[in-house]
Each structure stands twice: as structure tokens, then as C-alpha cells.
Amino acid sequence: MRALSFFFGEAGRSLWRRRGGSLLAVAASTISLFVLGLFLLGGVNAGRILERWSAAAEFSVYLNDAATPEDRALIERTLATSGVVVEQAYVTSTQALERFSREFPDLASAARSMPTNPLPASYEVRLRTALASDHAVDQLATRLKSLPGVSDVRYDRRWIDRLLAVVRVIRGAGFALAAIFILAAAVTIMSVVRLALLARRQEIEIMQLVGAPLAYIRGPFVVEGTLLGLIGAALAVAGLWALYLSGRGPLVAWASGIMDTGDLTFLPAASIAGLLLGGTLIGAVGGGLASREAR
Amino acid sequence: MIDAREVSKMYTRGVYALHSLTLAVGKGEFLFLTGPSGAGKSTLLRLLLRQEAPSGGQLIVGGRSLAKMTPSQVQAYRRTVGFVFQDFKLIPTLTVYENITFVPRVLGQGLAIQRRKAFQVLKWVGLQHRMNAFPLELSGGEQQRVAVARALINDPALVLADEPTGNLDPDLALDIMNLFREINARGTTVLVATHDRELIRRVGRRTVTLEQGRIVEGG
Fold it and tell me: Are B44 and B2 spatial neighbours (Cβ–Cβ below 8 Å)?
């Protein structure tokens, strides 16, 4: 307890004495963790949106105008016996037009002004999620396409899978970028702590001469690095929170004309804890490495 | 207290700072080490403070061989040794009181102990009234008194002083020497390295003269 009080007291004094350098190190760790957090935040929300779309992903079977009740019965039987369908619903062309008018009010008048209803009747099919990329779904799509009365089969999951792959690539690139920033932050913290060490070399010499334990000599520098990392991480989380609060509304409003994003969410508690712990760890490692020079 | 047997210290091949030095210093003894610059006085003190290890021979202090100590044993040993340097080695950003309590503080001792010990040694060196001053606000003599107080706060068995009066005028130098005499009178072994022969004459204690790393007188 006494040792901890000494470490924190000395680290606090040192941080205050070298405010400029401390601010630089805090800024470095804030930026690196902010970038990492930004990609995490984007990833979490992209994941949620895609999951949402994925859950609502439909297998749409569009009918041509010549489709007979027998054709529909065969389509319904084929879907019901496929083993990959959870639910199927028949949507008439009139219902499709009503829905279109509701969802895109600006374009409703244009659609209604056309001589005939441009939207075909269809079956909206909900698939079992676990079988999303299953071969059976592909087989079903091929089979349906060959049935009479079917004009087209659209399988949403395919582009969602492509989108997921793109998100994964962007997330990977983000993590790589964040890793570089984190390394830079660790080096900056190490340099700042090393400067503190140089500035206090006389104290260190006296500590060595009076037989102070190594932990007492190095401890304050490890704590100094740890505090720099932790403060940087806390500021990064605060910055992300501020960005989320101020950006959520406008972003959802902007995107609503293009896609259904649902409400955006902030980072889960585990990610926040991870960022704080990560920042602390970066600082501790930077401080620890620098403190090794005090022997 | 100190038993040096054929102790040598070589920094570069063939150049000895100390050469086969044999010296015994009894417990509670006061010894002057003298000689010209480069004679090996400071080297011997550095070996005794275990800042360096001897290149040859055996250096035993309080029954323990300094060469064979592990790092943690060196730390424990240094807690029994007080040191005073010519340049005082006070921390300029700390007050007199903080400079003195710095030692018990970094050794993990409690606040009450720090305070009691600090007042005790400050009173002893006559600087209670300057405890809130910073080193640069003090005269050279006062700064050296603070350094002596710091050396004594841990109640050491051995005090090593390297040219402690080198920056002081003769009267202040004698004051500091009187402090060392008092320390010695309380049973502490004191080893003072100085080239000030006049001071040695006025204090009048056992003196060992070194030249080119060898004892030439008083061994």
C-alpha cells in the first residue's frame, strides 16, 4: 500500500512536471485507441445492420403475368418441401405497389401513373438462418427458376454475404491501421517515460546508492506509463461517445433514404473495457520498457 | 569492519586504479584516505559502496564479501552505509526536509518514522530552521550538512565521504569534519577521502596515503 502510494505520488508529480510531454503521450494513445474504437464502432453497427438484413433476408420468387393457380400451387409445394424454408407469403402485384408507395412516397405517383402495375406478384420466402449459404438454397433457386410461371428468383443473402466480406476486409484494414497507431503510441509513451527517467537520473542514483528496492526505482515509471495509457484510453472512449451521440441522429436520418439501418448502437461494455485495458496495457508496457534503463 | 585483501581495480588493460591494496579498518574507527588526484581514493570508496566490483582480491565489509553479493544483497548492504559526496548530490526540486526523508521514503518506511528520523538528524546538524528551504537557497556548508544528515538518517554502520569539504572554505570544512567526528564518537565507522592535508592535521586521525593505486603510508 505504501509502495503504491509512493509510485502514484511520484508518477503524478512527474506527469505534472513534464506536462508538455505527458500531453503528447496522452494524445498519441488517445488517437490510436480512438481509431481502433472507431473501427470497432463501425464494425459493431455494420454487423448489426447486416444481421438485421440477414434476419430479414428473403428469397423472392417473382411470378410472370401468365402464372396460373396450378403454377402457384407447384411453387408453394416446392418451397414447402425444400426443407430450407421457414415461412412463405404470397404478395400480389397490388400489395407490392402499395408497399412501394408507402416506402418510397416520392416515387409513388410516378409508379401509379404508369399504364399498368410495373411490380410483379411474388413469393417472399424466409429461410432458415443456419442454412444461409447452404448448397440446398442454391439448388432450390435453380429448381424454382425452371418452374412455369416464375420470371426471376432473387436471393438477398448472396449480396449480404458479399457485403459481409467487404466489411470484414475494411475491419481488418482498420485493425492493422490501429495496430500501427498503437505501436506508435507505445513508443511515444516509452520516449516520454524515458525523458522522465533522464530528468530524474539524480534521484535514481541516490535511490540506488541508499539501496532502494528495484521495484521502488522502476515502479513510478511503470505507473507513469500506465496512467498515460489509461488517460489516453479514457479520452478515446469519451471522444467516441461524443461522436456517437452527435453523429447517430444525422447519420440515421441521412441513411434512411437509402437503406434501413435501424437505430445505431454504441460499443458494448466488453469493447469499452477492452479499450481501457488495452490503453492501460500499452502504457504499462511502454513505461515498463523505459524503466528497464534504471538498473 | 573493513578488510581489504590484495584488492585491485583495473579499468583498462594494464592500468590499475588500485593495485594489491591491503587495508583493515576496525569497527568504530575514523580513517582518512589521502593522496593526489588519481591515487585511487574515490575508486576504493566506489568499491566500498559496491558501485563497482574489484577486479581482484577480496573486499570484506562487516564480514560479507562485496564481490559475491547478489543484487538484492547489494541493496540490503547499501542500507547500512551512508555516503557524502563533494557535490552534495541533493535533489534541487525537493526541500531540505524532503531531501532527507527521501531515503526512508524510498525504503518504504512509514511517514511517522520518516518525520521522527528527519527531525532528529536535522537537529543534530543544526538545520531545523532551514527544513523548508530548497538546496539552492542554502550555502555550500549548509548543503553539505544536509547531505550529512541524509547519510545519517538510516543510522548506518559505515559512513563514506568522498572529498566532502572540497567545495567549502577551511572553517566550514572543519565544521563538517566535526560532524564526522561526532558521528564517529557514536560508534559509526567513518572513512573520509580528502587531499586536504591541513584538514587532516587539524582533525588528527589515522591516515592512509595512496599513490597510483598503492598504499604508500599508514597502511
Answer: no
